[in-house]
Amino acid sequence: MKTKSFLGCRYPDIDVDEIHNTGYSAIKGTISNFFSRCEKNEKEELWKKWVYIREMIFHLNDRVNYWETRRTQLLQVGLALLVAFGGISFALFNKYYDPIANPFKGSVIEITIAFILLLFCFLVFVSSFFMVLIWHTQNNPKYPFVYGYKIWLWHWRHAEHEQSNTKISIKIFSDEVKKFSRNMLFYKEKLLNSSNEELLDQDISQLYLLITNEKYKIKMVTQLQVSFWNSFKYVLYFLLLIRCLALFS
């Protein structure tokens, strides 16, 4: 029985080999024609195009990292706002609320200003909480494109002959070291024995995977930004609704 690793435990089992073989068969003729043009004295231009594809892979990878950094920064901002405005709300409530002597202590102006500040802090606190919650749900999503093709040249999931266990313990440490050595030998042999057509197919596939990955990252950053302001707006509407119901009751 095949044991799933921790990194792949949330993904469903599908026939990736069939998807890969179908996709590669569809493009194999075009890639073969690409290399057959070398007979027409276009070899130098063809290699430049391949180098350009490789450069695009690294360029897109940097862009994906940029959007992931933006997502992390939004988490840091959300946590900072959560702690700061949560603390301010608690301090204001503790200062002006006295359930024993008088529900609210201080002058009318002080209580009014404190109430406005408390309301604003509460809105920011709730909005930050929802943004942090959404950030958490975005982690390790079930990306459909991960299983869309066997990109073994660039991706760990199909680069292994034996699936390594990411839950390392003392008991299995020596076995995992041996397994890594066997997997590395498998990867080296596969890379050296692959044709130019297959390697080019792997590069182009990785390029498109990064384009798709960037799309997901941009959507995630947008979702975090929109969730903060939407939460702020909806909580404000909810509080106003409660106030209106209290006035008419």
Protein architecture, described:
- With 249 residues, this protein is mainly alpha-helical.
- The protein folds into 2 domains: 13-26 and 41-153 and 197-248; 155-193.
- The chain contains 5 helices and 2 strands.
- It has helices at 16-36, 43-96, 108-138, 173-193, 196-248; strands spanning 97-98, 102-104.
- A two-stranded antiparallel sheet has the order 1-2.
- A hairpin with a 3-residue loop joins β1 and β2.
- It is elongated.
Summarize the model shown.
The protein has two domains: 13-26 and 41-153 and 197-248; 155-193. It is 72% helix and 2% strand.
Summary keywords:
2 strands, 2 domains, mainly alpha, two-stranded antiparallel sheet, 249 residues, elongated, single chain, disordered N terminus
